[in-house]
Amino acid sequence: MKKRKIAPSILSADFTCLGEEIKRIEAAGCDEIHIDIMDGNFVPNITFGAALVRQIRPLSQKPFDVHLMVTNPEQHIHAFAEAGADIITVHVESSLHLQRLLAEIKQLGKKAGVTLNPATPLCMIEEVLAEVDRVLIMSVNPGFGGQKFLTNALERIAKLAKIREEKGYQYDIEVDGGVHVGNAETIAMAGADVLVAGSAVFGADDLELVIKQIKGEA
Ligand code: DX5
Ligand code: ZN
Questions:
Q1: Tens of pLDDT along 174-214?
Q2: For residues 202 and 13, is the Cβ–Cβ distance under 8 A?
Q3: Residue 36 bears catalytic tag
Q4: Bridge partners, residue 38, by sequence
Q5: Are 132 and 113 in contact (CB under 8 A)?
Q6: What is the pLDDT of residue 2?
Q7: How do beta strands 33-38 and 111-116 pair?
Q8: Whose CA is nearest to atom 2 of ligand 1?
Q9: What is the predicted pLDDT for the residue at 1?
Q10: Which ligand is nearest to the CA of 198?
Q11: Residue 136 Cα to ligand 1 middle (Å)
């Protein structure tokens, strides 16, 4: 089986020492840094904006995986691209002109990801699968860390992996929400390439060990 990656979500980090938290996950072997942008409108919670991404950018060499949970994402992609995002993922539910939005993200020189809520059928993104760099399967309803993994994600991951193989598409498959040491293997076996984990990583006594375990290396 190919190696799986981990993208810790800084949503669950200690914000009073965010810089240290980022250095800690980097030293512990994370592959990407997942940054949850919430606007209090598309989702009930509010987190951070492009200014924060810009400030933490010099602290890490790892790709910044920016997950936009906002309405009107087209109004924000430029700011996040300039701030140092490497991958920008948008929700199909908030993107009226999804194809154009994804093309714009690529024109900005960034990887373009698409994601969908647990209740949104996979066919809603079918027409853009040929051109996305990443598909993010939400395994919780977005808005908060620490929720329970919704198992319908497993079937969706497997379907996406099958479509990718059949059609020769290039996207990677990322999973976000409720990932922990106990289910990481099952999720990876279903076909996921990148696992996001927030509370499981930052709530751990031994963060380095948990990162290794979620990656299947310990
Ligand atoms: C949920 C966010 C997730 C969240 C994951 O809206 O998109 O990235 O931080 O947190 P855990 O791993 O605690 O479910
Ligand atoms: Zn996320």
A1: 999 999 999 999 999 999 999 999 999 999 999 999 999 99
A2: yes
A3: yes
A4: 69
A5: yes
A6: 76
A7: unpaired
A8: 142
A9: 64
A10: 1
A11: 12
Q: Please name the amino acid found at residue 129.
A: L
Ligand 1 pocket mutation, candidates 12, 65, 93, criterion most atoms within 8 A of CB: 12
Which of left, alpha, beta for 72 (phi over 0: left; psi -120 to 50: alpha)? left
CA distance 197 to 184: 10
Our answer on whether the CB atom of 147 is closer than 6 Å to any ligand 1 atom is: yes
How is residue 35 written in tokens? 């940054």
Residue segments in the chain with a per-residue pLDDT below the cut of 50:
none
Tokens for 142, please give them. Answer: 């977005």
pTM over 0.85: yes
Task: List CB contacts of 166: < 8 A, sequence separation 6 or more.
Answer: none
Secondary element (H or E) of residue 211? helix 207-215
**Amino acid letter, 141:** N
- Residue 176 designated active-site: yes
Ligand 1 contacts CB of residue 139 (under 6 A)? no
Report which secondary-structure segment, H or E, holds 69. strand 64-69
In short, whether 34's Cβ falls inside 6 Å of ligand 1 is yes
How far, in Å, from the CA of 34 to the mean position of ligand 2? Answer: 7
Q: Give ion ligand 2 contacts, CB < 5 A.
A: 36, 67, 176
